[in-house]
Design brief:
about 750 residues; alpha+beta; four-stranded mixed beta sheet; 27 helices
């Protein structure tokens, strides 16, 4: 339907809502759907009073007591669900009333109002209600047929006075009019469900008779579409009992009070300007409120409407929630086998962020989940609930509520984030993940990870302090402690996360060596004989003054559905390598550095400009294979370095001799593979995507149009080697487990000889 037609329909619906009487001479006429044929006998009141379709005296007495008689006489356009005297008397007897006169007036209004729907709907309208109007194509009408199942009624609870804990004072909470569920055969047909089975599960005292029509909440229909001059009447076999909100059903049963208190940890009272303007004066208050939970991402299960917007028919008539509420005993059991193991001593002590995640696991937002859907879930759906867990269930005005006798470990808690939610000393990392906004990817069964969970002491030793009250992380600055940035949180998370291919084990090897690329680009874990480090810590070995332990022992915390989780005894966090390798090499002046002799040759070849830049590295990311200091000294003695004659290093590390800068430059360029000549997707290490093959250096060809010799790189699984075509093969030294010294701008390996 185009936007103009939709807007016209909505204007008409709003006009019907507010205009008290529809005059025949009104210029703004209703659509043909709402026109009254000349042959219609009379008002809904007259039709029901006539006795032609049965006796409705009790219902009509209730209508009059509730103050709705004028509406049925023609003051409003309505759809009426009318129970006859037999049905109404059965209802009164069940509730303990001799007659409707004995029923309190507020209860009369609540019950009678639930039988009066805004607007006029015949049988076909209710079988497949279309909130966008009736001008849709057949294809459009078949899309989500029957799923717009809720209809606004005249039934509402009176405002209640409630204590607002944020202010310590009472506020008046306004309650919206109830919506009535009308379940048609098209509803269950679209969902692919057995209508009788799923309907009667929630309404065991009713019978599904809607195979060619619909049932009205708990009531079967006796007669469809009786015409009156102000709407349609559908007679029903039972009084339609007003449904309550999911929140009220939870509150009514003390068996789920723990879950409700966890839910209420996100509750707050919000003033509503529209309601205040319309109704506050009538109730003698300054402000009207609604009780909500959405600020923490939970659905507003205490609100009758899914959205405070009458214009949004699509949402109001379709959206519902399903809440699976674990019993108090079930939550106690889960605490003992999950959080108690993680170091918590009571449920009240459990981190609120972890608790909020648990609550979310038991909410299905947007639709109702029927029992058959639990038994045969869609391939991409995990409700975390089976029917054998259900001990009670309720159809509600805003969805479904199930009570669970026990709870399995929810999917979030059985993912690699499980230990992060579980362990008390993992809260700092939990806050980092939450602040980085990437939690969902770690929960997804489509992904696989190896995760290392740092504790709060490791955070603090890295200068990051945990603020438990605000679930935040802070660092010291000149202006005092401030929250660290989102990108800083993301770096922490990514430095402790490795994304693993589905066919590869997510377990860290307890013997031998391995290199794992991290979620942080150009950063790695290096594993050696049951210990682990990151490349930033690994690179500290280059500094002769370094005395810190490079590797830390790791311990497995859990094997989860989508990966493996560890902790380490490292002193601090794994840090992002932020160094500039090109600059570090260029300014090297300490002969104890492993690349010192190579740097001195680069200087003689004029490849170092100034103090801070090496011209070779101005050509993008690089991979260097650098001969050891001993290899270079030996090669100089043997005269095997082109462009260097009678060259040697003295005891102070000074390089002397005769040098041809251009020849030496051409030769030294051969030790570098740059991204200007090659696609560098990874750095070389065992099993990396830097594959065995030919690569091109920056070496200058001596003949025009002739490519320089290629560099042949080989990874045979136990050693790495590099060979310049026409020269000797050099092996990567085993001193550093053949792991690269990696920075973002480049990396290098040490080799045992010169080309």
């Amino acid at each position: 339907m185009n936007n103009m037609k939709k807007a016209t329909f909505l204007r008409k619906m709003l006009w019907l809502l507010f205009v008290p009487f529809l005059a025949v001479s009104c210029e703004d006429k209703m659509s043909e759907h709402y026109e009254v044929p000349d042959w219609v006998p009379g008002s809904a009141w007259e039709v029901l009073s006539s006795g032609e379709h049965g006796n409705y005296s009790i219902f009509l007495e209730g209508v009059e007591r509730a103050g709705y008689k004028a509406m049925l006489e023609g003051k409003s356009i309505l759809t009426i669900m009318a129970p006859d005297d037999e049905a109404f008397q059965a209802y009164l007897s069940k509730k303990g009333y001799a007659s409707i006169k004995d029923m309190p007036i507020d209860e009369v209004k609540k019950v009678i109002g639930y039988h009066l729907l805004y607007y006029s709907y015949n049988k076909e309208d209710l079988v497949n209600f279309r909130p966008n109007g009736s001008a849709e194509t057949d294809e459009e009408q078949n899309e989500d047929a029957g799923l717009y199942y809720k209809h606004r009624t005249k039934s509402a609870d009176a405002p209640t006075m409630e204590m607002n804990p944020a202010t310590g004072s009472e506020v008046m909470v306004y309650h919206r009019e109830r919506f009535l569920p009308v379940f048609s055969y098209r509803y269950f047909q679209t969902l692919g469900l057995d209508a009788k089975r799923n309907y009667e599960y929630f309404y065991p005292n009713s019978t599904w008779t809607g195979d060619d029509g619909f049932n009205v909440s708990n009531a079967s229909v006796k007669e469809y579409g009786i015409i009156a001059n102000n709407g349609y009447i559908h007679t029903v076999k039972q009084v339609v009992e007003p449904l309550e909100t999911i929140y009220k059903e939870l509150k009514a049963s003390g068996n789920y009070s723990t879950f409700l208190s966890l839910y209420d940890a996100s509750g707050y009272y919000e003033p509503n300007d529209e309601l205040t303007e319309l109704y506050a004066d009538a109730y003698g208050v300054d402000t009207l409120y609604q009780y909500k939970h959405e600020a923490n991402g939970l659905p507003n299960i205490a609100c009758e409407w899914a959205v405070d917007d009458m214009i949004n028919f699509n949402y109001l008539t379709r959206v519902a929630y399903t809440v699976f509420a674990p019993s108090n005993a079930a939550i106690d059991d889960f605490f003992n086998r999950f959080w108690k193991v993680g170091g918590y001593t009571s449920l009240d002590e459990v981190d609120k962020l972890a608790m909020n995640t648990l609550v979310r696991e038991y909410i299905w937002n947007g639709t109702m989940v029927f029992p058959e859907m639990l038994e045969k879930p869609a391939e991409d759906v995990d409700y975390n609930v089976t029917t054998d867990q259900i001990e009670e269930s309720h159809m509600c005005v805003n969805g479904l509520m199930y009570g669970l006798s026990h709870m399995d470990t929810p999917s979030s808690f059985s993912s690699v984030l499980g230990p992060v939610f579980q362990y008390k000393d993992a809260r700092s990392f939990l806050y980092a993940i939450n602040g980085a906004g990437g939690a969902n990817s770690y929960i997804s069964p489509e992904a696989k990870y190896t995760l290392i969970v740092p504790n709060s002491t490791q955070f603090e030793n890295s200068g990051i302090y945990t603020v438990y009250a605000s679930q935040g992380l802070q660092e010291d600055t000149e202006d005092g402690r401030v929250d660290i940035s989102t990108s800083a949180k993301q770096n922490i998370v990514y430095m402790h996360s490795a994304s693993i291919a589905s066919e590869v084990s997510s377990e860290l090897p307890t013997s031998g060596t391995a290199v794992l690329p991290l979620m942080a680009s150009w950063n790695f874990w290096f594993v050696k004989d049951g210990k682990i480090t990151c490349n930033a810590m690994f690179n500290r070995q280059l500094n002769p003054e370094n005395v810190k332990e490079t590797f830390a022992t790791f311990t497995k915390l859990a094997d989860e559905d989508n990966g493996t989780v560890y902790k380490t005894d490292a002193e601090s966090l794994f840090e992002l390598e932020s160094g500039d390798l090109a600059r570090s090499m260029a300014i090297c002046a300490d002969k104890r550095y492993v690349y010192y002799n190579f740097v001195q040759l680069l200087k003689k070849a004029n490849l170092i400009i100034g103090e801070n830049l090496m011209s070779t590295f101005g050509k993008g990311r690089f991979v260097a294979f650098i001969p050891t200091n001993d290899a270079i000294q030996k090669a100089l003695q043997e005269g095997r370095i082109p462009g260097a004659t009678n060259a040697s290093f003295d005891a102070e590390g000074n390089l002397t001799g005769t040098f041809d800068a251009e020849v030496l430059k051409n030769y030294l360029n051969s030790y570098f593979i740059t991204s200007m000549q090659n696609t560098i997707m990874s750095y070389p290490y065992f099993g990396s995507s830097f594959k065995t093959g030919k690569y091109w250096s920056e070496r200058v060809s001596t003949e025009e149009g002739v490519l320089p010799p290629a560099l042949n790189y080989e990874d045979n699984g136990t050693s790495l080697s590099i060979q310049l075509e026409g020269f000797r093969k050099c092996n990567v030294v085993s001193t550093y487990s053949q792991s690269p010294f990696a920075n973002e701008d480049g990396c290098f390996h040490l080799i045992d000889d010169v080309f």
